[in-house]
Design a protein that fits this description.
Chain A contains three helices and no strands. Chain A is mainly α. Chain B has a two-stranded antiparallel sheet. The chains are: A mainly alpha, B mainly alpha.
Chain lengths: 106, 639
């Protein structure tokens, strides 16, 4: 069986890739994709821990699985809303550069 | 529902009239609101009359009608209800009877006024509040009516509110009354503290049973006296009544002469047993009444406004009533309320008729000789003048004589009663004098009308003169209910004393002395009228005209109370107000501004963080989460 540490290491790598993507990319679509990467890195960590718990025979084994489903559902909803907003912004300004969207300040 | 209980509907009827006129009055054509308002009060009068006759045949002439439970807390139970007994029915008959006539009169008097329906709405509201006041079974409900009539008085004094002076007069009346109302509140607090109840009947019973010490009763009585001085315009709170003449004249007749201002007398008579147990409080009541009576009579001398003379005369007559209830003669106080309601309402309505005829003229120096122009007003006013002057066989004579006799014989107010008697006798002379001046300067002597008034003068319409005639009839007839007890049957005293059972006793001097006292009061009236005749009829007012001395100025200024109160209360409270205002703007306001400014400074520091770049915010979040994670890790995990 693949040790849990491997999954966690992969999860961390994907998370960092996502985080760097969020911070460095200017296209809103790419920022979105990076956020998805971070979410799925977390999902991977959760299922890895859940597997370990189930091997140990703990009663809480399914908690991690359940959390993943909640995150998937929320991510889907977030994408639906977020992409909707993005399409609206793109129609309005013909660009998805998020640095150009800096009017919301004092 | 028995005939007596029907009377409890009278305030509801008047309230209904007030609501209809207040909400839909503008939609009604002019005389209609007036007839509607008159009808509700007239119906109330009929109901009161039924109750009056039903009470006659009852063994125990008192009916209690429970309305609502207002408050229940532990042992304290405050329920609202009406007491219909001989005393409250008498007051109801005065309020609705005289009120009905004044409503009718107002239809003609207020003809063409833009606030016609508003006027009748207020007037009906007043009748409702006044009926609640007299019907109340507890001090609490009485206070509701007490405040209600105060509001209506305010609304009606400032009825023509576009004139600054009228609005000021209304505020003066309201604020002065508030001082008395504080007394009423404090008295109620102490009543609950001492008796554990506010029900008037229970308080009286407990007081008679000796449940409360005499000192506490005296304090409670003095606070109720303060309340009464406010509403009934007695020293030291009498200053508002002369200014209250700014309202329409029928309002002065109903509220500021016949009914509302007698509420203080009614309050003391209602709480009669309480006052009877405290000779100190009773003596205070009597002395305040006597001093008010003579000072107000003096102030009436130099007034030139047709209504102000009557206003001071009302204060003076209320003083008589206070002396009566102070001396423990509760039925006598109510008897004078009863007779005074007729002749003083008549005097005011007569003035209204004159003012109406002259197109708004109120200065008696510009009147005179009106008798030949307005015979009905003149004759009815003459009857009222003779009644208030205390001429025998007119109503005022019997009630005033009863007051004088009872003060002389009182065993409640101690040795000062002879001094009180002399004060009242002197006041009687003064009353006859200034009332003669009032009548003569208006209706007799030479005509001093202005050109436009001369062209305008006419007798008033029947809607105004018929109430005058009815009131004139009662200004004579009302006195025969209370003939001197020692020689004649007196139905009024037996009637009222069935409701007010106070332990007071009066001396019984010889019949000869009683007749002598009557002779003295007749002599007082004759002397006053005689001096008046000499000054104004024979010498054409010369002895009074040339005098511009200090005494005349003192009288004209209402005995100088306004000049005294202005620096004492008004200036000082204005000073206090401006001090507090500067405290508010310099300390409170500045403090708040400084607080807001410091928040602004902090905000300027933090502002640079908000750039609007989403990626920068994300970086802050990552840094924050990283720091949190580091802290958790350094502390060895979450648990």
């Amino acid at each position: 069986m693949v040790p849990t540490e491997y999954y966690i290491a992969l999860s961390s790598i994907i998370f960092v890739i996502g985080a760097v993507g969020v911070l460095t990319r200017r296209s809103a679509i790419m920022v979105f994709l990076s956020v998805e990467l971070m979410l799925n890195a977390a999902n991977l960590a959760l299922v890895a821990f859940a597997r370990q718990w189930s091997v140990a025979g703990a009663a809480t084994a399914l908690n991690g699985q359940a959390a993943v489903f909640i995150i998937l559902a929320i991510a889907a909803a977030e994408v639906a809303v977020g992409l909707g907003i993005l399409v609206a912004i793109f129609r309005y300004r013909s660009s998805t550069d998020i640095d150009a969207l800096s009017e919301v300040r004092l | 529902m028995s005939a007596v209980e029907l009377a409890a509907l009278a305030p509801a009827l008047a309230l209904l009239g007030a609501l209809i006129n207040g909400l839909f009055g503008r939609a009604l054509k002019e005389p209609l609101p007036g007839y509607l308002a008159s009808a509700t009060v007239g119906l109330g009068f009929l109901f009161s009359l039924f109750a009056f006759f039903a009470l006659q045949s009852m063994e125990e002439p008192s009916v209690h009608i429970a309305l609502w439970d207002y408050l229940k807390a532990g042992n304290f139970d405050l329920s609202l209800g009406f007491t219909i007994d001989t005393l409250s029915v008498t007051m109801m008959l005065i309020i609705t009877g005289v009120g009905f006539l004044i409503h009718l009169y107002s239809i003609a008097y207020m003809h063409g006024d833009s606030g016609f329906s508003r006027y009748f709405s207020f007037l009906n509201l007043f009748v409702a509040a006044m009926l609640i006041l007299v019907l109340a079974d507890s001090f609490f409900l009485m206070f509701i009516g007490w405040e209600g009539v105060g509001v209506c008085s305010y609304l009606l004094i400032s009825f023509w509110y576009t004139e600054r002076a009228n609005a000021d007069a209304a505020r003066k009346a309201f604020i002065t009354n508030r001082v008395g109302d504080v007394g009423f509140l404090l008295a109620m607090f102490l009543t609950v503290f001492a008796f554990g109840t506010l029900n008037i009947h229970e308080v009286n019973e407990l007081a008679l049973a000796g449940a409360v010490s005499g000192g506490l009763i005296t304090v409670i009585g003095l606070f109720y006296l303060l309340a009464a001085t406010g509403k009934s315009a007695q020293l030291p709170l009498q200053v508002w009544l002369p200014d209250a003449m700014a309202g329409p004249t029928p309002v002065s007749a109903l509220i500021h002469a016949a009914t509302m201002v007698t509420a203080g007398v009614y309050l003391i008579a209602r709480a009669g047993p309480l006052f009877a147990l405290s000779p100190v409080a009773s003596t205070w009541v009597a002395w305040i009444g006597a001093l008010t009576a003579i000072i107000a009579a003096f102030a009436a001398f130099a007034q030139t406004d047709i209504k102000k003379i009557l206003a001071f005369s009302t204060i003076s007559q209320l003083g008589y009533m206070f002396v009566a209830v102070g001396a423990g003669a509760y039925w006598v106080g109510i008897f004078h309320v009863f007779t005074h309601a007729f002749f003083k309402a008549l005097l005011f309505l007569g003035s209204g008729s004159v003012i109406h005829a002259l197109g708004g003229e109120q200065d008696i120096r510009k009147m005179g000789g009106l008798h030949k122009h307005m015979k009905v007003t003149s004759f009815t006013s003459l009857i009222a003048t003779l009644a208030i002057a205390g001429v025998p066989f007119f109503a005022g004579f019997f009630s005033k004589d009863a007051i004088l006799a009872h003060v002389f014989n009182s065993e409640l107010i101690g040795g000062s009663k002879y001094l009180l008697y002399v004060l009242l006798l002197v006041t009687a002379v003064m009353t006859a004098f200034y009332m003669f001046r009032w009548y003569f300067q208006i209706f007799r002597g030479e005509e001093r009308l202005s050109e436009e008034a001369r062209a305008h003068v006419h007798e008033s319409p029947a809607l105004m003169t018929v109430p005058l005639m009815i009131l004139a009839f009662f200004s004579v007839a009302a006195g025969y209910f209370g003939l001197p007890e020692f020689a004649f049957p007196n139905v009024f005293s037996h009637w009222i004393e069935r409701s007010v059972e106070a332990p007071v006793s009066f001396g019984h001097p010889s019949v000869g002395l009683e007749w002598f006292l009557i002779l003295l009061s007749v002599a007082a009236a004759a002397l006053g009228l005689g001096i008046g005749y000499w000054v104004y009829a024979m010498r054409k007012g010369e002895p009074a005209r040339g005098d511009t001395g200090a005494l005349r100025n003192l009288s004209a200024s209402g005995a100088g109370f306004d000049a005294l109160y202005r620096p004492l209360f008004i200036r000082s409270s204005e000073g206090l107000a401006s001090g507090l205002s500067s405290l508010d703007s310099n300390v409170v306001n500045k403090g708040v501004s400084q607080g807001a400014g410091s928040v602004g400074l902090l905000a300027n520091v933090v502002r640079w963080l908000q750039t609007g770049y989403a990626r920068q915010y994300a970086l802050f979040m990552f840094i924050g989460v990283a720091i949190l994670a580091l802290v958790v890790a350094l502390n060895g995990g979450l648990s």
